[in-house]
Structure formats: structure tokens, C-alpha cells
Amino acid sequence: xxxxxYIQSGIIESYVLGMANEEEATELLQLSHQYPEIxxxxxxxxxxxxxxxxxxxxxxxxxxxxxxxxEILAKEQNNxxxxxxxxxxxxxxxxxxxxxxxKDYKTYHLRQNALSLSLDYDN
Length: 123
Prior knowledge:
Layout: H1 3-8, H2 11-16, H3 22-34, H4 36-55, H5 62-91, E1 93-94, E2 97-98, H6 102-122
Antiparallel strand pairs: 1-2
């Protein structure tokens, strides 16, 4: 096998870019274990591809990052509040009654406690 011809065939580029089929990828990986220069060519292409990507990268403006983080935070806060509301509805079920608001729930229990105290006082 002529290793240099194999390397120059384009298989390495196809593999690194995810364009090689399963058979080609399997063969390349097996050969890369047998021939260090094939593994070196794979590594070299990956490094050059990454370097080129960084060289041509465009920096994200700071305000976009800040807006994105604020949007994520707002969604997380909303999810948290929805979870709390769901918990409140579960907690506000008492004696087979479901309360629409926390205020109604507290008012009900204050009345129940007051009634209980007045009954205790009468006895």
C-alpha cells in the first residue's frame, strides 16, 4: 500500500468533515493504527481546520451576549414561578377544597382556626 497516495486521495478530509461512509471510516481508523503517518495526517487536517475556523471567526457583540443571557434568565425565572404556582395549588388543596389564591387559602384557615378556638372556648 502506498500510504502517501492514500493520504492524498481525499479520504482524510472526507472523514474529518463527516462525509466518509461507514466502510471508509472503518478502513481509515484501522489503517491509522497501522500507519502513524495516516494518524498524523488526520490530526494535522483537524488542527488546520480548527485554526482556519478561529482565524475567520466573528466576535459576538457584547450586547447580544447580555441580551441572550437576560432572556435565558427571564425564562428560567418564569419556569421557577410556574413551578411555585403549581406547588401552591397543590398545597392550597385542603379538606377537599381547592383555593384559587393563596389569600383565599389563608383566609379559610384563619376562619377554621377562629371557629375551632371559639368552639374550644364554649366548652
